């Protein structure tokens, strides 16, 4: 029967998130319920709270999570009660044209739960990124559950479901960083720091981190950056990156900040014929202006990276295994562990750049 649990809800634009009772229905065909153990506080949740994404309030926040499957609905065969899973907000259908062409990362028919979770008043909730995991229990499509080794710390595992995967994938999947490459990452918050870790994992020999925050630069150095650039004191970020790469520019440059200024820095800081990856989500009102001739003369590749161009069933277990082997220090991304009632404080810490990730621990 439906269960009433506690969850973090954004009631309206500009209003603080609240811990409210919500009703989670029994899973229907293709659906499962997951007892959430940990959920990261991502900037996307803050965007939902502030109305940056859309205005389908009230929102059930949270999407960067791990937990244990509690119930499965009819027709579910890929997961079972008791499975430890990471929730993924991009569940591919396997049937659309991109999927049939062998490009599931470009799926145009993503899967999600059909039923709605509600407030106790019956008002339907919009789950953040189709998940809504800042809750003791959530309802998702079975395809949004990726089983991984249960030996992993749930607080660490959940981060693979969004921020860590986005940054790691920007280097490993989209940027295709190879051993011996030089890599520059502009903006080393949670996603950018993960890109640094991904570049190190891929075997890059020079990894340059650029940011305005010395604290983030210190974290990036711990995760594998060989050089750091404090943007507040560097008058020419492009020149600094070129100086560190023998005047050539980096083989791969990743923009994890998402501003017109950082876009241009990343474009010009790469080597001739190099790769430029935009992984940060720009605001809708941002505009870019630059000489088209420069794009022609510079050559190379420009790519946008969405969700690390990942295939969760392939990438999540592999990254967890690398972490458990001691080769990927995902635990360094967990800056603090909090409860559901601390989410607004975590948003403040996120705005001030004080954390890589605050993680709500529920069980």
Automatic annotation (TrEMBL):
<dbReference type="InterPro" id="IPR011032">
    <property type="entry name" value="GroES-like_sf"/>
</dbReference>
<dbReference type="InterPro" id="IPR013154">
    <property type="entry name" value="ADH-like_N"/>
</dbReference>
<dbReference type="GO" id="GO:0050607">
    <property type="term" value="F:mycothiol-dependent formaldehyde dehydrogenase activity"/>
</dbReference>
<keyword id="KW-0862">Zinc</keyword>
<dbReference type="InterPro" id="IPR017816">
    <property type="entry name" value="MycoS_dep_FDH"/>
</dbReference>
<dbReference type="InterPro" id="IPR020843">
    <property type="entry name" value="ER"/>
</dbReference>
<comment type="similarity">
    <text>Belongs to the zinc-containing alcohol dehydrogenase family.</text>
</comment>
<keyword id="KW-0560">Oxidoreductase</keyword>
<dbReference type="InterPro" id="IPR036291">
    <property type="entry name" value="NAD(P)-bd_dom_sf"/>
</dbReference>
<dbReference type="InterPro" id="IPR013149">
    <property type="entry name" value="ADH-like_C"/>
</dbReference>
<protein>
    <submittedName>
        <fullName>S-(Hydroxymethyl)mycothiol dehydrogenase</fullName>
        <ecNumber>1.1.1.306</ecNumber>
    </submittedName>
</protein>
<dbReference type="InterPro" id="IPR002328">
    <property type="entry name" value="ADH_Zn_CS"/>
</dbReference>
<dbReference type="Pfam" id="PF08240">
    <property type="entry name" value="ADH_N"/>
</dbReference>
<dbReference type="Pfam" id="PF00107">
    <property type="entry name" value="ADH_zinc_N"/>
</dbReference>
<keyword id="KW-0479">Metal-binding</keyword>
<feature type="domain" description="Enoyl reductase (ER)">
    <location>
        <begin position="14"/>
        <end position="362"/>
    </location>
</feature>
């Amino acid at each position: 029967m439906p269960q009433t649990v506690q969850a973090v809800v954004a009631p309206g634009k500009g209003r603080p998130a609240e811990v409210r009772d919500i009703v989670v229905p029994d899973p229907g065909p293709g659906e499962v319920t997951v007892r959430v153990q940990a959920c990261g506080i991502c900037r996307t949740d803050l965007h939902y709270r502030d109305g940056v994404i859309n205005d389908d309030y009230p929102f059930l926040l949270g999407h960067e999570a791990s937990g244990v499957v509690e119930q499965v609905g009819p027709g579910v065969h890929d997961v079972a009660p008791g499975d430890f899973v990471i929730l993924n907000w991009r569940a591919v259908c396997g049937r659309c044209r991109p999927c049939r062409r062998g490009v599931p990362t470009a799926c145009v028919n993503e899967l999600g739960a059909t039923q709605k979770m509600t407030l106790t008043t019956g008002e339907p909730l919009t789950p953040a990124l189709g998940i809504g995991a800042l809750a003791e229990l959530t309802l998702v499509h079975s395809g949004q559950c990726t089983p991984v080794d249960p030996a992993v710390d749930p607080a660490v595992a959940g981060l693979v479901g969004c921020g860590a995967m986005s940054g790691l994938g920007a280097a490993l999947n989209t940027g295709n960083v190879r051993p011996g490459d030089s890599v520059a990452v502009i903006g080393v918050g949670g996603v950018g720091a993960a890109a640094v870790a991904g570049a190190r994992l891929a075997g890059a020999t020079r990894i340059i981190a650029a940011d305005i925050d010395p604290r983030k630069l210190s974290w990036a150095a711990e995760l594998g950056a060989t050089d750091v650039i404090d943007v507040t004191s560097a008058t020419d970020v492009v020149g600094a990156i070129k100086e560190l790469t023998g005047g050539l520019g980096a083989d791969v440059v990743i923009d994890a900040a998402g501003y017109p200024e950082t876009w241009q820095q990343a474009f010009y800081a790469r080597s001739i014929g190099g790769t430029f990856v935009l992984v940060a989500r720009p605001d809708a009102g941002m505009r870019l202006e630059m000489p088209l001739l420069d794009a022609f003369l510079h050559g190379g590749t420009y790519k946008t990276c969405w969700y690390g161009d990942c295939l969760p069933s392939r990438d999540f277990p592999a990254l967890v295994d690398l972490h458990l082997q001691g080769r990927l220090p995902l635990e360094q991304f967990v800056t603090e562990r909090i409860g559901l009632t601390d989410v607004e404080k975590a948003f403040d810490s996120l705005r001030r750049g004080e954390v890589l990730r605050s993680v709500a621990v529920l069980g």
